[in-house]
Amino acid sequence: MVFFASGLMHQASAVEPVRVAPDALAIDLTSIVQHHKAESDLIQISTAPGSDGIVRRVAVRAREGGTRPDWIVFALTNDTDEQLERILVAPHYRLVGSGMIWPDLGSSRIAAITASQGIRPERQEATGADIFNITLDPGSTVTFIAELRSSGLPQLYLWEPEAYKAKTNGLTLYKGIIIGIAGLLALFLTVVFVVKGAVIFPAAAALAWAVLAYACIDFGFFQQLFPIAPSTNMVYRAAAEAVLAATLLVFLFAYLNLSRWHVRYSHFTLAWLVFLGALVGLAAFDAPVAAGVARISIAVVAGIGFILVVHLASHGYDRAVMLIPTWFLLLVWVTAASLTINGQLTRDLVPSALMGGLVLIVLLIGFTVVQHAFAGGALAQGLVSDTERRALALAGSGDVVFDWDVSADRIHVGEELESLLLLARGALDGSIGKFVDAMHPFDRDRFRGTLDTVLEQRRGRLTLDFRLRAADGQYFWFNLRARPVVGADGEVIRVVGVLADVTDARNAEERLLFDAVHDSLTGLPNRQLLQDRLESALVFAAQTPSIRPTVIYIDLDGFREVVEAVGPTAADSIMLTLSRRLGRLLRPQDTIARFGGDEWGVILMSETEPERIIAFADMVRRSIATPVSFGDREIFLKASIGIALYGAQAAEGEGGMVKNAEIAMLNAKQHGGDRIEVFRPGMSAQRLARLALEGDLRRAIERHEIRLIFQPIVSLDDRTIAGFDVRPYWDHPRLGRLEADEFVPVAEDIGIIGEIGQYALERTARELATWQMALEVEPPIFATLTLFSARLLRHEFIADVKRVLSAHAVRPQSLKLGFREAMLTENPEFAAQMLIRLRQLGAGLVLDGFGTGYFALSQMRYLPFDTLRADRVFVRDLGDGSRPGMLRSIITLAQDLDMDIIADGVENETGASSLADLGCRYAQGFAFGNAMTAHDARRFLGATSAAA
User: Fold this and answer.
1) Which CATH number applies to 392-508: 3.40.50.2300, 3.40.50.720, 3.30.450.20, 3.40.710.10?
2) Which parts pass through the membrane (predicted)?
3) 152, 215, 473, 887: least surrounded by Cβ within 10 Å?
C-alpha cells in the first residue's frame, strides 16, 4: 500500500529559497515559482533546506478530491532575527501577456496555499486579486505549495504590507482621476450633442461612454459596486472591448462623413458594425474568442482609419487635417497595446498608462469635435476689442471694481461686493467717510493714512488689506490694488483699482499662525507659546516683587499602557477631558500648555506662597486621579508632578525653569509616580546619574551583563529537585549586582523592557531543554519565570513564546510563566485572553504572590492557571509556632482547583515539614539552597541525578 500510495502522489525536487530582506518592498516571484501538474489529487514536495540543512517532504491534498489541479511551489527564507509580515498577491487579470487570440481575460488564480511550517497563510478579501498574508518567523525557511484554480498565473508578487498599501492607494487615486476625467468627458460630449445635434457629437459621446465603461471594468470599479464573479467579469471585459471597437468605427465614419464619398463605405461600415454587435452576444458564450476578434478589430480600425485620414487630408479635407494628430496617437496607442498583450512590454505601469492614454485620445477627440462645433463664432474669430477683452478678464477674475472720484468725493464699487456683504444696492456708494465707516475700527486709520499718502505724492500703487462689515455683523477681508489718476493740473482726480475677496486666505493664514503655537488636539498653547509667556512673566517679576511665577510640569504615569488598551482615538478623548479639567482649575492670569503626548505645563501666577502652590499641585493630582468614563468602563489615571518655584533657578531664564520642573517630575516618577516633587539643586545630579544608568542599560544586553539566577524548587514528597525559579539580574560593572526591581523601571522608561523579556525567556527555555535532556524524570523538571513588567503582557509576547517553544524541545507546561495579581486586575478581559492563548501554546501558568493582592477568587475558575505560588509572607513564620490558617486555606483552594502549589520563602527544615503536613507539593527558599548561576544549576542537577 505504501508503494501504491507513493505511485499516486506527484513528487517534485527541492526548491531554491528566495531570501526576503527586511528592506525589500516587493519581490517578483512569477519566474521563480515551480509549476507542477499533479497526476492525482495529492502532491508530494521536497521542501527547501531549513536552517538545519535538512530537506523534508510535504504532501498536500487538493481541496476537492478526485481532481488534478495545477500547483506552484516556492520557498522563502528569513535570515534575520525579526518576524517578517508579507502579502502575496496574484492578480486575477493582467493585460501584459494576456494574448491577442484567445486571450486570458482573468480568473481567480490561487485556491489555497499550504506552508511547510510556521503560521498558515490567511486569505484577504479582495475583488481583483488573490491576496494572502504570509508570516516568516526569524531564521526560518518556509516552502509554500499553492493549488491553482486555473493553469495560468500571469503575475505573483511578494509585497511589504505598507508598500503594497501605498501602491494600491496611489493606483486607486490615479484610477479615480482617470475615471473622473472619462466620466466628465462623456457627460460633456453628451451635453454638446444635445445642444448642437450634429451626427458627429453622438458618435463622439458614444466613444467616450464606451471608454468610460471599459475603464470601469479594467480598473475594477464595477466589481466594487456589484458582486461580480471572475467568470462574469470575463464576459463584461470581452463585451466592452467589442463595444469599444464598434464605437471607434462609428466615430471614424461619422466624423469623416464617409457616406458622401461612396455608398460602398456605408455598406462596408454597416456590415462591420453588425459583425461587432454579434461579438457582444458571442462574449456571453465564448468570451476569449469574442475579445480576441475585438482586439484585432480595434487594430484594423486604427490602421485603416489612419490611411483614410492621411488620404483625405492630402486632398484638402479640413476635418481629416484636424484629426491627423489624434489618430496618429491612436495608432501609437494600438501599437503599444499590441506589444503589451503579447508580453513585449512588461512593466506594471504600462496597463495603467495605456488606459490613461486612451482617455487622453478621447479627450483630444472631444477637443477636435468641439473646435469643429464652434468654428465660425465671434469669439473664435477674435472680433473682441481691447476694452471688451479687459472687461471680460475682470469679470473672469471675480474681482470688484473700486473707483473713487476725488474731486466729487464719491466712491463707486461693483454690486457684487454689496451682494457679498448682504447690503442694499448703493449702500457703499457715497463719500469716502461712509465707506470707511463700514470698515473694521482697527483698519480705518491705516486706510485713511495710505490714501492721504497717495494724494500727497500723486504717484505710486496702492496695495492694502482691510475688513468690511456685512449686514449680519460678520467681517470679510478684502485686498485693494489701485493707482491714482492724475489730471492736467497735476492733482489726483481719481483712484481706480480692484477689490478681491481674500477672507479664506487670511483665515487660513491666521489658522496657521494659531496652529504654530497651539496644540492641534486640545487647542491649548504649546511649549513654545508657554516659554514665550514665561519669558514675559519673568521680565515683569524682575520689575515687580509681588509677581512670582511658578512652573508646574505634569506627566501621566503609565499612559502608554492605557493607549494600547483603549486605542488612540479613545486616548485622544481622554486627553481632551483631562485638558478641560485642568483648565477649570486655573485663574485668568495662569497659563496651561500641552507639551505633546501626556504632558502639560502650567505657569502659575495666581499663587505665590509655596504651601498654596503645593496645595494647587495636589488639587491637580486629585483631579487627574478622578476616573475618566469611556463607554461602559472607567479609566483610572495617575500623574507625576514637578514644581519649579521662582527664585535662584529663575536666573536661568524660562528654559531653565521648565527644565527644572521637568527634572522634578522625573524624580517623582522615579520614586514610584503619583506624587509631587519640588525642584532642588541636587536633583540635577540625580538626573545625570539616571541618564548614565539609562545609557549603561542600553548597552547591557550587548555586553551580556543581564544574567539569570536559578533558585531550586523542591518536591516536598521526596525532597528531590522539581524545578527552578528563574529571575534576571544586572551585573553592573560599577554598581555590582542589581536586582530586577532596581533596573526594570528604567528599562520601561527607555523602551527596552521587551528586549530584556525576550532574552530572559530565550535563556530560560534553553536551560530547561538542557536539563530535561540530561534528566529524564516524571513529572519533568520545570522552570518558572515571573513576568517582571506589566508591559510584557502584550500581543507580541504571544509570538515570542510561540517562537521559543518551537525552537527548544521543552515538555508541555514545563516552562511556567508567572503573573502577579496586579497584572491581571488592571485589564481582566485582556489578561484572560492572553492567558488562554499562552496555555494553548503549551506554556504553564503560575499565579505568583497569591494572597497579597485583591484578586477576586470568583475569577480563579475561569483562568487557566495550573500552579499557585504562596507569598513568603505566609510561609516565613511557619516554623515559629504561628497559626497557618491562611496558608492552609490557600493550599486547600489550590487542591480544590486541581492546581499545584509552590510555597515561597522556606528558611528551615521545620517550615518544610510543616508545609508537607499541610499538603503543599513544592517549596523554595534558602532551606534548599541559595540562588545560583546557570552553570551551577547544571552541576547541581547532575549531582542530584547521580545521587539518585
Assistant:
1) 3.30.450.20
2) 173-194, 200-222, 234-256, 268-285, 292-314, 320-341, 353-374
3) 473
